[in-house]
């Protein structure tokens, strides 16, 4: 009774190619567009008939890159600066007994092209390739509890980070046509300050890189200012 298997119904094609820089909750970066690509056994329009009547959906997924690392009873939430421990069930940390996560994301459409069924999503916070275990419609009357409290995570995370782009980066973004929201996407990802908590305590200029979509992006952080220095296509 305690042992069972779950079958992935599909996977995510996400702009986030590495864990670094992924927002810590869904919808914090609305420009993060993704596709849910259905697996062969579920690649039929009957499975999603009526889903387009809903603006948002719940995704249940597997933390596939950390699932083999086991779980911890106590974790250090980034929201608390990594300095305080909480029980794993009081957080949304990845190191869970069953490595299952959930995200409420915007459903922008259903696509059936060349025999492949996909959901078009926005505000995603999932790594590219994440296996999806289930989809459920978001019900505002039931799921949005206006009197709920959320302990140490009771408010939306905010930073004072500013973002500036070099002239060469602005020129590159201007002339690429595949991602019209690329400037705002990068801007909002960096405003979330994706650095590890211990890095935020260090003074002086720091250099970082990340991959979004098929772009390598490099930037420098000095205090609460991000300066995007370069962008190159992979």
Automatic annotation (TrEMBL):
UniProt-recorded name of the protein: tRNA (N6-threonylcarbamoyladenosine(37)-N6)-methyltransferase TrmO
Alphabetized PROSITE patterns for the sequence: TSAA_1 (PS01318), TSAA_2 (PS51668)
Xref: PANTHER family: TRNA (ADENINE(37)-N6)-METHYLTRANSFERASE (PTHR12818:SF0)
Source taxon at top rank: Bacteria
UniProt domain TsaA-like: residue ranges: 6-147
SUPFAM superfamilies: YaeB-like
Family statement: Belongs to the tRNA methyltransferase O family.
Record key words, sorted: S-adenosyl-L-methionine
């Amino acid at each position: 009774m305690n042992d069972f298997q779950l079958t992935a119904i599909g996977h995510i094609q996400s702009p986030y190619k590495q864990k670094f820089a992924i927002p810590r909750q869904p919808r914090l970066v609305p420009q993060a567009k993704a596709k849910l690509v259905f697996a062969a056994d579920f690649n039929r329009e009957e499975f999603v008939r009526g889903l387009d009547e809903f603006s948002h959906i719940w995704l249940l997924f597997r933390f596939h890159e950390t699932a083999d690392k086991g779980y911890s009873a106590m974790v250090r939430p980034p929201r608390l600066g990594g300095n305080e421990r909480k029980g794993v069930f009081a957080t949304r940390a990845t190191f869970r007994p069953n490595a299952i996560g959930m995200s409420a994301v915007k459903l922008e459409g259903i696509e059936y092209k060349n025999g492949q069924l996909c959901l078009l999503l926005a505000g995603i916070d999932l790594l590219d390739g994440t296996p999806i275990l289930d989809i459920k419609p978001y019900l505002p009357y039931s799921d949005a509890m206006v009197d709920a409290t959320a302990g140490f995570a009771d408010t939306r995370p905010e930073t004072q980070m500013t973002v500036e782009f070099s002239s060469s980066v602005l020129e590159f973004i201007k002339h690429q046509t595949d991602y019209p929201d690329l400037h705002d996407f990068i801007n909002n990802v960096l405003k979330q300050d994706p650095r590890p908590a211990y890095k935020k305590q260090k003074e002086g200029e720091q250099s970082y890189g990340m991959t979004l979509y098929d772009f390598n992006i490099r930037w420098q952080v000095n205090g609460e200012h991000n300066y995007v220095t370069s962008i190159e296509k992979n």
